[in-house]
Design goal:
Length: about 425
Amino acid sequence: MSEAAAIPSALDASAASASEQPLPVIRLPMLDTKRELFAYEIVFQNDDEDEAALMRRALATITDGALARLVRGNRTFLRLTRDLLMEETDVLQHQPRFGVLLDPQAAADTALVERLTRMAQRGCPLMLDAGDVELEFNAAVEPLLKVVQFVRLDASKLDPATLRTRSEYLHARGTHVVAGHVDDHSTYRRCEELPVQAVQGQFLLKPEPVEVPVLTANRLSLLRLMKALQEGNPGPVELGQIVRDDAILSYKLLGCVNSAYFALPRQLKSVQQAAIFFGAARMRNWIYIMALSGMGDRPPELLRAALIRAHMSEKLAQHMAPEQREMAFTAGLFSLLDTLMEAPMDFVLWHLPLAREISSALLENKGPFAPLLEQIRAWEAGDLRSGEVQPQVIRRMAAIYLEATQWADHVYAFADQRPN
């Protein structure tokens, strides 16, 4: 699917210039009350690298702008060691969109609190990762509460009444509240009623339980398009006919494939030409992407997550035959189809004549693509442990992930646009 394979990731290249290794990080979104991006958190995957060395590499990628490209210039929080906070965080002075996550124990470190106070005065965003620590009139954490602009609460550890009381207490102080570890939709709905600025957690990637699935007219139309793209294995001419009456879809497709990112030798003027150039299977996957973006009522970070999974699946399937790599891409993209369509996966796939290998991976966690999806989910959750996974595997996953985010952000920019 990704012609971008021939184009090195900017973050990869920048990281390699300093260390010859991709930075093993993932970006985790925090969403505001409208489910738009509020901020990213940068989380470091566990590998065999010394923590201090890893943090210094992270600061180097901030300095050269590579990490800013990974987060698209959005507000971002990351953890840094005490030594770096005391000695080298002047880097952040010139990057006001980058902030620091702090543990409650830092409040007992007078020198560190003084340093953080100066950083806050210079405009550096600071977030206290409070977890379930009591905050109301707690003298032990008060030094930090006076300097941070944001506090993240652990919604999985606090009962609903305490979460509400604590959110209201912080809100009354003028502190922005982030509800973290919001891993199911019932918790998310509770957070919607609280004075919180953002939520973060696995709820974004999970379908909301429904008793009776009901598809809107827009989603039914999308499923009909997807079914047409599967039935009869359409070639370039048929693909062009399928989308010829959808001006917006054609506009997005041609705008993306003709962009400078792919550096084509000539401009492609029709979907049929694009399908001939890229191949029908690849173009079918492109149409899926552009069509899914047209729903408009799903969080943008959700579609970005699906795009990242698709690209990573294809890269992890490089040892497979070309047609299987295209199916791996589809499996990765469709792994979030239930969440995108707001309906159970078996209900959605019942409408689609997918290859058995794809449906088995999505419904039964079986077949050649199931291990790929499991590895990607483990990466997303930060569950790759250095004691269980060889360092070279983590480095390979890091390179694939960084390339996938760059590719996904580029494609999403075209998928989300509208003709003038």
